[in-house]
Amino acid sequence: MQHISSADEAWYGVGFGLQGEVVVFDGKTGAVTSSAEGGGGTPRDVAVDPDASRLWVLEENEDASGGEIRVCPLDEGAVGACAHAAWVDGGAALFATDGGLWVFEQGAYGPRWKVLREGTIAKGVYAPRPASVWREGDRMEVLSYGVNEDRLTRMSGTLTENGLVVTTGLDLGAPALQPPTARFVPLSAESGLLWDVVGGDIAARKVGAQSAEAAVMLGVGPGIERIEAAAVLGGAALVLSTNTLWVVELGQENGGLGVTAIALGGEVRRAGTFFSRDLATAGDRALVATDQGVRAIVVEKDGGPVFLDERFEGSSLRGPLWVVRAAN
Questions:
Q1: How many domains does one find in the chain?
Q2: What's the CATH code of the domain at 89?
Q3: pLDDT, tens digit, for every residue of 134-179?
Q4: Are strands 130-136 and 183-186 parallel, antiparallel or unpaired?
Q5: What is the domain extent for residue 189?
Q6: Predicted structure pTM score
């Protein structure tokens, strides 16, 4: 998941309106600044090129048996008319890079990864679907549930002259739930936090280059059913469940975990097949998409106040979400 780190930088959000239209909105107020007509399907994912010149939209057809990828020009935050880019088989998710658009599919012939590049035919590689995804240099890094959803595994994808190469990394053991809901957040190139639900409570495990530490329980259960997404912002971990954002202070001297719960007033979409795009972070705030609108949560650094921004007008906005740094 992408993040804009400075609270002072100008940025805007990309999401969807009530009729499925692509919208660009002010990240501080929620006001829509431009929009483009949707393609008629259900919005399932969105990604923006690193240079913010284009955004990619994945729309799912009515029976979720396939979908369409559309590409829309961006010009200083103004979105233009979208055009057809590719069809997908079954469910899918996107990640835009300088080298091309990564497409993760879960179709009739199993899970596949491919990269769309102009002037080339994308060849898929058989690989488990990602539950979390992030970039480390030229590599696409993934937390996978495994082909049979029975092993949590780190995997890497690299685009070479001969095509896409996928390698298997650290085995993190069996997921705590079936179907699994574990999510991974990188802290550095060598470490990260693995979040899962254990016995109706949220559990965190520190993951290093070679192994994972024992789980630490947050003590917010019982009753937690799922984790949809997770991120790090301002020295805190953000863990998104079905209707609550848990803000967990990291690095406390006593080794404890200070936790703040923010009730969202709506249900978060179940990300059962791929990673979620209903949590995005920028500056000092998190944006969360629910069925009642997009909510903005302010998370100040170093254990400062955490609160819902009641001035943010997001009732007409829907996910999936992306955030973009505005041009200077």
A1: 1
A2: 2.130.10.10
A3: 999 999 999 999 988 999 999 999 998 888 999 999 999 999 999 9
A4: unpaired
A5: 3-325
A6: 0.93
